[in-house]
Design a protein that fits this description.
alpha/beta, 4-stranded antiparallel β-sheet
């Protein structure tokens, strides 16, 4: 189980955007977090993925509290998460070809020897041809780049997936394709999913349950 207990977080110490929020994602469960832009759901997702240190509260991963954030998190905890962001161009190194972008986590964790096989398999799964893999981010569309980012998120075979508005910039066909890729991986691996967004119809169809941000806020009222 992935548990967020009493999380308060933000980017200015005295002005948190998330206050005393708790949320759980069960083993193999898909949970959608629904809320309007600016409510704090993306910040909570970054805390859940160990990418942002909260001001207060605890993240518990399969019964073990998080012991660090970003590069200071233990490797076993850090690599348990695959993350896909809303804007692929802000999360992709513009100098890398798409095949190197997908393989980047493997190389960073000393598993370079697995790169060729994993990249080929994931490229096929997300719908990227060999010709597209040889291109850099500025040479592909947003949808093609997001396909590469989804492949990158899956390359280490994560235990948990965090998707932060993953489909917000995509057309309907690309959205359907990438949701199908994530679900195929989850069926194969048993991974849990936390996906945040403001499209209620998509989240209701995709997830086992949807949590509304307003309900989380209501839970902490006296």
């Amino acid at each position: 189980m992935l548990e967020l207990r009493g999380v308060t977080a933000g980017y200015a110490p005295r002005e948190p955007v998330v206050r005393d929020v708790s949320l759980t994602v069960g083993d193999g469960e898909a949970v959608g977090l629904l809320g309007p832009s600016g409510c704090g759901k993306s910040t909570l997702a970054r805390v859940a993925a160990l990418l942002h240190r909260p001001v207060a509260g605890t993240v518990v991963i399969d019964g073990e509290p998080a012991r660090g954030w970003r590069h200071r998190a233990p490797r076993a905890q850090r690599t348990a998460f695959g993350v896909v962001f809303q804007q692929p161009r802000q999360s992709a190194d513009p100098r890398l070809r798409l095949d190197d972008l997908i393989a980047e986590p493997l190389r960073a964790t000393g598993r370079r020897g697995e790169a060729a096989e994993r990249v080929a398999a994931l490229a096929a799964a997300v719908g990227l041809s060999g010709e597209l893999l040889a291109r850099r981010p500025h040479e592909v569309s947003d949808g093609q780049l997001q396909r590469a980012c989804v492949a990158r998120a899956l390359v280490l075979r994560p235990r948990w997936l965090v998707c932060d508005e993953m489909t917000a910039m995509l057309d309907a066909s690309t959205t359907a394709a990438l949701v199908a890729v994530v679900e195929a991986y989850r069926r194969e691996s048993g991974a849990g999913l936390l996906t945040v967004g403001h499209d209620a119809v998509l989240l209701e169809r995709w997830c086992d349950r949807t949590v509304r941000w307003a309900d989380l806020a209501a839970e902490r009222r006296p």
